[in-house]
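Quick one: structure for this chain?
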Amino acid sequence: MSLYLSRLTIARTPTTAALRALIDPSPASEDSGFRDPARGRMMDAHHRLLWAVFADSPDRTRDFLWRAEGQGRFYVLSARPPVADGAGLFEPPEIKTFDPDLRPDDRLAFVLRANATRARIDPAAPEKRGRRVDVVMDLLYGLPSGRVSDERRLARDAAADMAGRRWLEDRAGTAGFAVEQLAVTSYTVVPLPRHVGGRRQQPQFGVLDMMGEIRVVDPEVFMARIAEGFGRARAFGCGLMLIRRA
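Got it. Here's what it folds into:
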């Protein structure tokens, strides 16, 4: 299967300037701590925006992964090239085929934005399929409450680093690579917009930003997994691993 890696940039035109608050809202958070409603609105707006260059028919299903880089720029990995004009919302896309010549033991630097989850098994019913839970919040679940804010932040940062590392290492064996170095650079909880009701019932998901170095074990398996993406919430800009020679 052919893959295309594209860089898309929002056009600087009067039309996009008038729509900027809708198509590329400010990422500034309204909440303190790690819960970020503004980021949720931004990811939802970007998700809709990118369909302008991929929704070529009413029944089209998503076949691309994307990552926002800020300042109206996006990287997209897709099974088909984006539409050239993008309804006038983007500059002409920069497109190249994505077919790196990878060999076993190649070392690659990577960045990955992921919604990392796992199945939490109920000890009372281990035979049942577990509920999907965010790996960081699951690790924090058992920590005592009542800590001061600095202690909670340090505990959260440590949990994000540990949970993110475990999560990626658990997937590496079946994805054709090994993790050599990894750092979690941020963790936020993103509430989904358009929710009607109280805050407690609002759907949300965790977003881990990771970077580091991996070693290729099986190039064919690894490339297939790159195309598939990692984790969940892929429609909202998670799952695309960007790589380069280390």
